[in-house]
Amino acid sequence: MRAAVLHETGQDKLEVLDDVEAVGFGPGKVKIRVRATGLCHSDISAMNGVLPQPAPFVPGHEGAGEIVDVGDGVAGLSVGQRVLVCWLPACGACPSCKRGQTQLCLAGFMNAGTPNFKRPGGDVFGFAGTGTFAEEVVVDAGCAVPIPDDVPFDIAALIGCGVTTGLGSAINTADVAAGSSVAVIGCGGVGISAIQGARLKGAAQIVAVDPVESRREAALKFGATEAVAPDALGDAKQRITAGEGFDYVFEVVGKSATARTAYETTRRGGTLVVVGAGAMDDVLQLNMFELFFDEKRILPSMYGGGDVLASYERAIALWRAGRIDLESLITHRVPLAEINEALDQMRTGSALRTCIEI
Q1: What is the 3-state secondary structure (H, E, C) of 99-144?
Q2: Could you read off the pLDDT of 4-50 as tens digits, one per residue?
Q3: Residue 153 near residue 86 (C-beta atoms within 8 A)
Q4: What pTM value is reported for the model?
Q5: Of 66, 89, 180, 222, which residue is the least packed, with the fewest Cβ within 10 Å?
Q6: What would the pLDDT profile of 175-185 be if each residue is shown by its tens digit?
Q7: Residue 323 φ then ψ, to 5°
């Protein structure tokens, strides 16, 4: 079958090969025919080594398709069923799951170290234990979440990561208060979803911050009340909050420099929400006095900061009701053979989300 493979960490292009085989099928597993997958910035971060991932590997973790085989012991799933791929399934038994913090379950991460593809030359891993830049993928049954028939594969794929992450950061993690002021730094697919979440919660001012003009223009269509380049954020803070700072600031880039800017843009007693996934050696520096004196809440948001299955259902309900726009998040579509074009679109910022049709 065909799959896009990164041979070595640090390479900037993928090779689409037709000699890849999905492996690992057996009890407790399902095989999925992937129909659509989104390109998330985390895929690029894994390619360049910012996020740890053994190589060679097949990127992709934001996918949807249909089940083509079901292993022994799997209940509630059947051949032909339409599913989205959950890259961080909850085991239901660990301390995090028992506390109701299923987004912190580490069971899914354990899969990242087990190859789920192979080629004549050896084993190939799947990013985050999945690897949706392939025609087929074998995953734990918990990674296959049924979707209703009226949800297109491309929409379901986005809900599998970016939409859930962004919406949840505003709704679950921050619990944005009605009438509040919000700034979102980084307006790709996840940032735009955070903007939509803040709008749903009733934020009065939502300032989108991004260096790419097309993304700033798009943010206004999704609910931002103003969109500025990063060098104009200070002026927006002064005009909108009289210099005090925003009630909520979302960092959706994953870099210490932007997190520091976000901290300084948050008012005393306000909330900084860290959504971007960054590198282990990129250190955010805060001094002990400002931590104490400013009393700013710093809230990391992992996968939307809540139960992902409930978050999927909420996103579908909001989409059906016309309360969130998911179709317009997909600004580009490419076939798997043109996956490197999608990577260029992500790197230049010309795309909010590119859908890879497989």
Answers
A1: CCCHHHCCHHHHHHHCCCEEECCEEEEEHHHCCCCECEEEEEHHHE
A2: 999 999 999 999 999 999 999 999 999 999 999 999 999 999 999 99
A3: no
A4: 0.95
A5: 66
A6: 999 999 999 99
A7: -85, -25
Decide if 296 contacts 260 (C-beta within 8 A).
no
Helical ranges in the chain per DSSP H? 41-47, 95-98, 107-110, 153-159, 162-168, 189-200, 213-221, 233-241, 256-265, 288-294, 308-320, 339-348
Contact 297, 194 (CB under 8 A): no
Q: Which of helix, strand or coil describes residue 207? A: strand
Token digits of residue 54: 């053994």
- Find the radius of gyration of the CA atoms of the chain: 20
Position of tokens 């996956």? 339
For the chain, how many residues are written? 358
Pair 102, 108: CB distance under 8 Å: no
Q: Residue 42 burial by CB count (10 A; 0-12/13-18/19+): exposed, middle or buried? A: buried
